[in-house]
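Problem: given the chain below (131 residues), write out its structure.
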Amino acid sequence: MALTVTRTVLELLRAEAKRAHPLECCGLLLGVARGRIDIVLPTRNIAPEPTRHFQIDPQALVDAHRAERRGGPLLLGYYHSHPTGLAQPSSTDQAEASGDGRIWAIVAADEITLWRDAGGFEHLPYDVFDH
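Solution.
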């Protein structure tokens, strides 16, 4: 299945990373269908060292799962920025990944890459569409 992302989502991810700099931003990727990222939901980064790490507020995850069960958008994955790094999973990302199969978007400067967390990160190509 081809992965698609709205142009608006990409713009919001870049804006969130710039707004949070020099801290890492983070949040949730939601969609109305599997394989299509339509919504960015920024969350608080509660990591003790947010200049080097990210931790999504657990309440945001609980709320997203509840909303999905009630028929809301699907929780497709997560995003975070690398303020001084590359748009690829870091060694910390590799060590802390859960292997849940969800998508990770990583933002570094203006570059955005997508990865599937499946017991190791798999790079995901994606198509952009206007919405």
